[in-house]
Every structure is written in C-alpha cells, then in structure tokens.
Predict the 3D structure of the following.
Amino acid sequence: ARGLIELARRSDGGGDDLIFPATIADSVAIWPELLALARDKNASQKNRKQAVFWAGQAAGDKAVQGLSSLVNDDDEDREVRESAVFALSQLRQDEGVPVLIRVARASKDPKIRRSALFWLGQSEDPRALALFEEILTKPDA
C-alpha cells in the first residue's frame, strides 16, 4: 500500500489506479501516507486531490485533524483545500460539521467559506441550521 502511494506521488496525475487500491489493502492504516501525499506540493494536483478524498474515506474521524489543517492552510492550493472541504462533508455521522462551521465563520478565502457553507447546507445537521439562522438573522453592522 505504501509503495502504491509512493508511485502515485511520482505519477503525473494518473494516480487514481494507485491510490484507491492502496486504501483497500488489508491491515494497513494508510491515511497518514494519504495526508502526506495531499500536502506534497511536488505531486500532481490531481493525485493530491484524490489523496484528500481517500484520506477522508479511509480514516473517518482520524482524518479530521489533517483535513482541517489542509483547509486552513492559506498557502495550500485552493483546489486541494476545496477537496478537503468536500472530504470533511462526507465523513460519517457528521464528524466534519464542527470543522466546516469554523471554516464557514473564519476562512479568509471566500470561495472556501462558500464551499463550506454549501456542504453544511447539504448536511441537514442542526448545528449547520443554527449557523444559517445566526447568519440570516444577524443585524447588518
């Protein structure tokens, strides 16, 4: 599994056939390597985005901290950050909702905030609904 991730790191963008098989390897916690690939600015953007997606799928709540770090890194590629927002939205049992709420409130990047708000709207989570109510009822300053 780690060898497949290393090949994806060096691949020019065709890593889909390498990353997914690494995630289904038996008895291997691959999510740390996926997050490392996602942060590798020398790897192709496509493979980095795939690594973000599969890190969220493979690790669930263990990936929240790493995905949150990617989203909040203003020096990171925007498309990779948007992939991390999506991955947070796909975590089971709405584990990514608190992070998405923080992103929606505080991100300096309006596109990242918009993406977080979009996925929060899809979540039907009461915490997200409370955020929307707060935003919509806040008096203009």
About this structure: The mean pLDDT is 88. The CA atoms of residues 31 and 59 lie 6 Å apart. The longest helix spans residues 45-59. The two ends are 53 Å apart (CA to CA).
